[in-house]
Design a protein that fits this description.
The complex is a heterodimer of chains A (284) and B (329).
Chain A lengths: L12 E5 L5 E6 L2 H29 L5 H27 L5 H6 L1 E5 L7 H9 L1 H4 L3 E2 L2 H7 L6 H10 L3 E2 L2 H8 L7 H6 L1 E5 L14 H9 L7 H13 L5 H19 L7 H14 L3
Antiparallel strand pairs in A: 1-2, 2-6, 3-6, 4-5
Helix pairs in contact in A: 1-2, 2-4, 10-13, 11-13, 12-13
Chain B lengths: L2 H24 L7 H19 L1 H4 L3 H18 L10 H13 L3 H22 L7 H6 L1 H10 L10 H24 L4 H21 L7 H8 L3 H20 L9 H32 L7 H29 L5
Helix pairs in contact in B: 1-2, 1-4, 2-4, 5-13, 5-14, 6-10, 6-12, 9-10, 9-12, 9-13, 12-13, 12-14
Chain lengths: 284, 329
């Protein structure tokens, strides 16, 4: 099952063998989608912080609640900062809300589900992946904020955490085949994309000449590679003008004309469509 | 039968499996009926068979790609992640962690680095004639002034909800430092830098506050005595665990580097759990006992008991588990 090693396309897919002894392919997730998922999770956490903060603000009028509320808020901040991703991935089968939205999932490198320890560890090590961190003071010059004023430090502390450059993460991701960041390397995990795709079925061919040609063509054993090529061509030809179809069909079409002993000015586009019809649509 | 008819025959099963994948992902196993589960398993096996025969049937590449995706999604629903198992935490905490920490050269190195820098910094900061601006350079004058001001009065606070606030704040702040020491150790230098900085910072404060000309020294040491053993031990342990992680890059013991990292992280991550517990206990003491009016003798007693507990856990229990080996877990 699957393409053989010699004709394997250079791609971001990895093979997994299931306990049922079936091999299928996973598409590994690249840095862009993972960054988007991280950004979405960041937004969710910000929403939680703001919502809880506002709730605590409103309830702070009650005696004793204000201090308890701040204590709860600080503990919640710590928990979400370090364990948000880990807890979600442990309880949600390798997904956080951001990953769920974008159809990503964390698995072990062998395609198996992760355990709680791996989920938590790979998120704790995100601290390393965010490095190097740009200190707050670097923003002072950009914003024209004077640190000599008491308000200057307050603005920086409140508004800006140390800025994560994520250079460590990007360099690590580029250095291995599965786009694994440092946390993935340490925990033997990877992130795959399982976004749903749709089954469109076979493309229809309306030209009546195709059926006629299909019945009149000499017999030809269509191997896997040829079948793939025919399928890809016919699936895309509708978006090409006639001249472009002739251009794309020419290399394969000319080779088939020679092999089948057809006349030289045979229409390559029709020839490929006829072969496709005979291979996939005609009754076997 | 041609390929078109084949796909149309199987499409219904594939669609049904697709829908069941959505149902399985949105509910727990207990919320799904047994019939539905059995149906899901049956459809999954059929889809696996279809994928295996895709080449024989000469299915188009788009259909094959669809099947790969479908089987992958169903596989992830059938084989779900193993969640956190609290039943194993006792074994990890009282068997695995003491055995891992005992006699670990990196943990010992971490202790030497942190406490060595701490003591050196305290010594240099204590003597204003030797290096008058050392403490200010390390901690900033505002920090030292703030420290003096906050400890200038005796700790005569009654226990109140402010102690809970203090506990939460210390837990958040100190545990974050410990986690940074640990995770930064993965790259070696950053973890070491964080450990050295924290050792120098805390040591400078201790040294400065111990100066005879600083009026708040008595109150300061009355404050830090009770929670000191747990907190300082936790930081040193974080540093040691981080160094061990960084050492896995170099000392791979014959494994590939990523395999060495994975093995070491599995061994050291339970230590992080212990570190969080130590920081938690330090935070409770720092928030609820240290700032109160309890006589100093009791705070010293708490510090002594903490030290004894740490020795019992790391040394005595660690030796016992080390002798028993991993089989005892």
């Amino acid at each position: 099952m699957g393409t053989n090693g010699a004709s394997r396309q250079l791609d971001t897919v990895i093979d997994v063998v299931t306990p049922e002894n079936i091999a299928f392919e996973y598409q590994t997730a690249g840095p862009t989608r993972r960054a988007l998922a991280y950004f979405l999770d960041y937004i969710f956490r910000a929403v939680i912080f703001i919502s809880v903060g506002m709730f605590l603000l409103f309830t702070s009028m009650l005696p004793g609640v204000a201090v308890l509320g701040i204590s709860f808020y600080l503990l919640m901040w710590f928990t979400l900062e370090w364990f948000y991703g880990g807890l979600f991935e442990a309880l949600w089968n390798g997904q956080t809300p951001g990953k769920w939205i974008l159809g990503l999932r964390v698995l072990t490198t062998s395609g198996r589900p992760i355990n709680g320890l791996q989920a938590i560890a790979r998120n704790i090590f995100r601290f390393v992946d965010l490095m190097p961190l740009v200190p707050r003071i670097a923003f002072a010059a950009l914003l024209g904020v004077s640190l000599a004023e008491p308000g200057g430090w307050i603005i920086l502390i409140i508004l800006f955490s140390p800025f994560p450059t994520c250079a460590c993460c990007l360099i690590t991701m580029m250095s291995n085949k599965r786009y694994r960041r440092m946390g993935d390397l340490v925990c033997d995990t990877m992130v795959i994309s399982e976004a749903q795709n749709w089954l469109w079925g076979l493309p229809k061919i309306d030209d009546p000449k195709v059926k006629v040609w299909a019945s009149e063509l000499p017999p030809l054993a269509v191997g896997r590679q040829l079948a793939n090529a025919l399928s890809r061509y016919v699936g895309r030809r509708k978006s090409f003008p006639p001249q472009r179809r002739a251009e794309i069909a020419a290399p394969l079409g000319q080779a088939l004309i020679r092999q089948l002993g057809l006349i030289e000015n045979t229409d390559c586009d029709l020839l490929l469509c006829a072969l496709y019809y005979r291979t996939f649509i005609e009754a076997k | 039968m041609n390929v078109t008819e084949l796909i149309e025959r199987r499409r219904q099963s594939w669609n049904e499996l697709d829908q069941l994948c959505g149902v399985m992902s949105s509910r727990t196993r207990k919320g799904i009926g047994s019939r539905q589960l059995a149906r899901f398993a049956s459809l999954y096996r059929a889809a696996c068979a279809d994928l295996a025969l895709a080449e024989a049937w000469q299915l188009p590449p788009d259909t094959v790609r669809y099947l790969h995706n479908l089987v992958g999604r169903a596989h992830n629903q059938l084989y779900k992640s193993r969640r956190l198992d609290p039943a194993t935490w006792y074994r990890v905490l009282f068997y695995k962690v003491p055995r891992v920490i005992f006699c670990d050269p990196y943990v010992i190195l971490g202790f030497f680095v942190f406490f060595g820098i701490f003591l050196l910094s305290a010594y240099v900061a204590y003597d204003p004639e030797r290096s008058p601006e050392f403490a200010e350079n390390v901690c900033s004058a505002e920090t030292l002034e703030g420290c003096e001001r906050s400890h200038s009065n005796s700790t005569d606070n009654e226990l109140s909800e402010m102690n809970i606030l203090g506990t939460a704040g210390y837990q958040m702040h100190n545990t974050s430092i410990g986690m940074q020491c640990y995770t930064g150790g993965l790259l070696g230098f950053p973890g070491l830098l964080i450990t050295i900085f924290n050792g120098a910072y805390i040591g400078a404060i201790f040294g400065y506050m111990a100066r005879p000309d600083v009026a708040a020294d008595t109150h300061f040491f009355a404050f830090v005595t009770a929670h000191g053993p747990f907190e300082l031990t936790a930081i040193a342990l974080s540093a040691g665990a981080g160094l061990r992680l960084g050492g896995a890059w170099i000392d791979t013991k014959g494994l590939a580097r990523d395999a060495s990292l994975f093995k070491t992280s599995r061994a050291t991550l339970p230590v992080v759990g212990t570190i969080i517990i130590l920081f938690g206990m330090a935070a409770v003491i720092e928030g609820c006992i240290s700032p109160t009016a309890i006589p100093y003798i009791y705070k010293a007693l708490i510090a002594g008991m903490s030290t004894v507990l740490l020795i019992l856990y790391f040394v005595v229990l660690g030796f016992i588990r080390w002798r028993q080996g991993p089989e005892a877990e």
